[in-house]
Here is the input.
Amino acid sequence: MQGQTAAGISAKTFELSEVRGTEVITAVFAMASALLIFLSLVVPLDLTGAYGALFAFLLSATIVLLLTPPLIRKMRTGGMIGEDVNKRPRVPVAELGGIAALFGFSISLSLVVGVQKLLGDVPEPPFLAAISVFFMAAMIGLIDDISNLRQRLKAVAVAFAALPLMLVHVGRPAVDLPLGFSWDFSGNWHLLYWLILVPIGVTGLSNAMNMSAGYNGLETGQVAVISSSLFAVAVFHGAPPVSLLVFGAVTGCSLGLYVFNRYPARIFVGDIGTLGLGAAVAAGVILAHIEFYGLIAIAPAFFELIATGYYGMTGCNEDRRTAYRNPIIETDGTLKAPNGSRRYTLAYWVLSKRPMKEKSLVGVLLGFYALSGAIAILLSLV
Here is the structure.
């Protein structure tokens, strides 16, 4: 009895410290955002480049940090909860955390553009296109969260989220490559770029983020790593300012959500978050014309993409899903891959090499994304 009481007190103390830590982080981001708004109006600052990206980052992170705690309470009250299958006993966790990211991304970009309009004329269509891409992909994710769409239907549906990018078609239709090379689709080939490659890019990246999720902190952590890496690539390539703001806002949203989604997760982002954030990253990549480096940055996700395609064609995806939802969990929380599941997911491949706890597994997987991001940055410098 005394041991149970001590454990309960320890858990409550940990929870209180987590809440206080979150409140401190939120306060810091809020004050930094307010200071930047004040400076941008008084000095004024040029918000079309690095300052704008910092502004979008701080605002999006602050909005997500403010919205997520009440969202968690609302989801729990409304019964929108899911089971954390990687713990014994399974823990109920609030769902649909991506709603906070949806508001954080759209409001932060809108405010940055609004302040820019006060300081000087700026073109709104690229920003509106990025916000629309996020919204459309997120709504498809929401439908999937509540009705469980088939994977093929989801992939096709998300491709239509690329329509706003196709309408604004910012910049020339070309893919920048290392060593100063470029794959140009100008002339008769421009339709191939805008009508085929752009939709494939949006649905491919957003579904890649969705497929490789499933562990506390992984989905938000991988988006933060990828978007920050691609921000660096965009800076080195002299990409249009709109792409820098998009990457800044996505990084802020994902890091803000990571505070609540990391181990032990207090909220899951859901498909509304993974598809929306993934599509926003794709929008930034296309607006910056750094598609090649985007592929390098998400390289670990290709394991899931290939596995999904292969087991889908062989009719074994149901076995794969069953194994994914039923890992072997030791009494100390160590995860092991079920027999015969080594090639099902990248996480199971890692666990087949060395069983480990969920927090360590997520650290390894994020390490893969950090390495891929570093490679993308290095290639952009040559």
Notes: Residues 19-298 form one domain. DSSP finds 15 helices and seven strands in the chain. The chain has one domain: 19-298.
